[in-house]
Amino acid sequence: MYRVGYIDDEPTQFENYRRSLWRRCKELELVLIEDCDSKQDILDKIYEKQIDVLLIDYKMVKNYGFNGTTLINYINDSMRDIQCFIMTAVDTEQITDGLVAKRDKYSKNIFDTEAADQKKEEELNDFIQVLLESAKVFKVRQQQKLERYRELLDKKHRGKLGADEEEFLELYKVLSSYGMVEKLPQNMLNSEFEERLQKILELGSTILAEHKTE
């Protein structure tokens, strides 16, 4: 099962889109990202709901204060591997800010196949395959991240993490959110914290040793 996140400040058609997608592909589940006040809230929800690919409405300024293309730019700063698609009720040619490639813009009308139009049905099926492929690629990339995380975790255990600590913490954040590694308190992943803890343990050992010799 792959999770398709749906972000829209007025998601009135969400249930229709969800059912349309589910009828045609049982491997894809459309998940609404809601109750957010900022870009960071949305990013946190993506982690929380373990989303594999995203559909984002273009016109969201009215309720969010930013458009979908700006949101994609923000999301990809933190999650470079997740594929995001713009969904719009206007002509895709009107989206001219240059933040999203033409191939990643789709009309919301693509879900409108109730008239049994064969061409529209084919277009939707093609779009579904794009979503499925994008989600699968994301999963593979997550596995690569997991392998890199394990390499860095081994270096950390040997006290040789050094300049790779920032990468290690970023990988931990993503992978733990998706349930791929064990969640730990954030401060326990910081080398400075571990150094302080080690000094406390060494001090405790010294005190015990002194008491034994008394």
Summary, kept brief:
By secondary structure, this protein is an alpha/beta fold.
Structural account:
With 214 residues, the protein is α/β, with parallel strands linked by helices. The chain contains 7 helices and 5 strands; from the N terminus they run βαβαβααββααα. The protein has helices spanning 14-24, 39-48, 61-64, 68-78, 118-157, 165-177, 191-213, and strands spanning 2-7, 28-32, 53-57, 83-88, 105-107. The chain has a 5-stranded parallel β-sheet with strand order 2-1-3-4-5. Strand 1, helix 1 (14-24) and strand 2 (28-32) form a beta-alpha-beta unit. Helix 5 (118-157) packs across helix 6. The longest helix has 40 residues, at 118-157.
- Sheet with the most strands, sense and barrel status: 5 strands, parallel
Return the average pLDDT rounded to an integer.
88
Largest sheet: spatial strand order: 2-1-3-4-5
Instruction: Tell me the radius of gyration.
Output: 23 Å
Given as residue ranges, the uncertain stretches (5+ residues, pLDDT < 50) are: none
Q: Could you say which structural class the secondary elements and strand pairing correspond to?
A: alpha/beta
Question: How many E strands?
Answer: 5
Helix-strand sequence? EHEHEHHEEHHH
- Alpha-carbon distance between the termini? 64 Å
β-strand amount: 5-15%
- Silhouette: elongated
Tally of separate helices: 7
Helix content: 40-55%
